[in-house]
Prior knowledge:
four-stranded mixed β-sheet; 3 helices
Amino acid sequence: MSKSLPLLFTLASLVTTAGNAPACLARQATSGDHPVGLLELYTSEGCNSCPPADRWLSSLPAAGLSGPKLQALAFHVDYWDYLGWKDRYADSAFSERQRRRASQAGANTVYTPQVILNGQDFRAGNGALSQALAAMARTPAPVSLSLGTQIHGDKLTATVDIGSDTSPANVVYVALYEDGLHSQVAAGENKGENLRHDKVVRRLIGPLRPNAAHRVSATLQIAPDQQLANSGVVAWLEEANTGRTIQTIGVACSGQ
């Protein structure tokens, strides 16, 4: 379905206060010696061609195509809400991010489902994805990143440190996602379907420009209905002008 429209890191801690249950476990991770891929799925509960793409995204861990090789995120867009079903996970900021991606690629349309790998449109399957990840595994990481997070009440604060000087054209994004979400769709193109979603972005902060100490800090609001035990954080450094992903890391609150 398409529609024309205008146009990482060491995780120091994931800690929650006593008021948050279930708690995120303290975790440690590193971005490693090689680039980690960032896969973005642009999807919508109002699009009848999106459920297979959602299922494909959910299948990546079982296929061995996930962290530490790849971090995947599902961005639900809002421009199909007019068809009769309002996607409760959609955000106009995600639609705008997809439009910006299209503009960077020289395209004048956006569509769903769309998959973007490291800032580039990606339409191949698991074989091509495996090859792309293998190529990254043979490439030295261009930069090291670290991430420290803390949860206080209903907010998550993330601090990202870049291990070396970086171009002023590079920016940081931090996303808070959730797995295992379900929707019983009552209208629109997917009427009657019980849809399941993973890696759904609930909050996104960015672009953030590093300060003189090569650091950025951001606070993300945790959704009232969000289950932290099914959630995680992904952060990445990308080129602001081209959208090319430089390095990525993600940690699940459950430690799974």
